[in-house]
Specification:
- The protein is α/β, with parallel strands linked by helices and 192 residues long.
- The chain has a single domain, classed as Uracil-DNA glycosylase-like domain (Uracil-DNA Glycosylase, subunit E, 3-Layer(aba) Sandwich).
- Helix content is 45%, strand content 12%.
- It is built from nine helices and six strands, in the order αββααβαβααββααα.
- The protein has helices at residues 3-17, 49-54, 61-72, 98-115, 125-131, 137-140, 163-168, 170-180, 183-189; strands at residues 33-34, 40-44, 81-84, 119-123, 144-146, 156-160.
- Strands 1-3-2-4-6-5 form a six-stranded mixed β-sheet, with helices on both faces.
- α1 (3-17) runs antiparallel to α4 (98-115).
- The chain is globular and about 40 Å long.
């Protein structure tokens, strides 16, 4: 069985077995999307309204901005994998709660184990704090974080501000774009 089939099987399993309470208020699960062979996985926090409607991560304004940034470093959305910590939309796009993150954690870890990326890029503090609970995004953005986790396919992580936050704050947008443009150098540094 190839990685694509493994991911499809994983998503089918968790769509029925995930115990996240957000299932009750969401239209559908929003599993990760993109290349099963990706060297880079981008992790956001949770689906928004457009994602909940379409069943794909990062399809709203933040997703459009993410696609522009990918293009700026000669990557396509189809060549990377994009997912979220939480697979269901929190009501009114509120921050996901710790128990919601925990309920979706094995689903996320399953995606990461199958894809086995060389680099994981956090889109925002929620994704980063799920792996690095004491880090502050204001200090960690644009930096390579190196830490080995049991059962994790990579030890290389890179933190960015969330594209949605940057859409509302012009100075953050410039910082995010500058940090994003460092990704090719990060990949070079880790030998990709």
């Amino acid at each position: 069985m190839g990685k694509r089939e493994e991911l499809e099987k994983l998503h089918a399993k968790w769509k029925t077995e995930c115990a996240c309470e957000l299932r009750a208020t969401s239209l559908q699960a929003v599993p990760g999307d993109g290349s099963a062979e990706a060297e880079i996985v981008f992790i956001g926090e949770a689906p928004g309204q457009k994602e909940d409607e379409q069943g794909r991560p990062f399809v709203g304004a933040a997703g459009k901005f993410l696609a522009e940034m990918l293009s700026s470093i000669n990557l396509k959305r189809e060549g990377v994998y994009i997912t979220n910590i939480v697979k269901y939309r929190p009501p009114n796009n509120r921050d996901p709660l710790p128990e919601e993150k925990n309920a979706c954690r094995e689903w996320l870890l399953g995606e990461l184990r199958i894809i086995s990326p060389k680099l994981i890029v956090f889109l925002g503090r929620h994704a980063m704090n799920d792996f690095f609970p004491t880090e502050k995004i204001s200090n960690a953005h644009g930096k390579l974080l190196i830490k080995a986790f049991a059962g994790m396919p990579t030890k290389y992580f890179y933190a960015l501000y969330h594209p949605a936050a940057a859409l509302y704050d012009g100075s953050m947008r410039e910082t995010l774009m500058a940090d994003f443009k460092k990704i090719p150098k990060v990949l070079e540094k880790i030998g990709v």
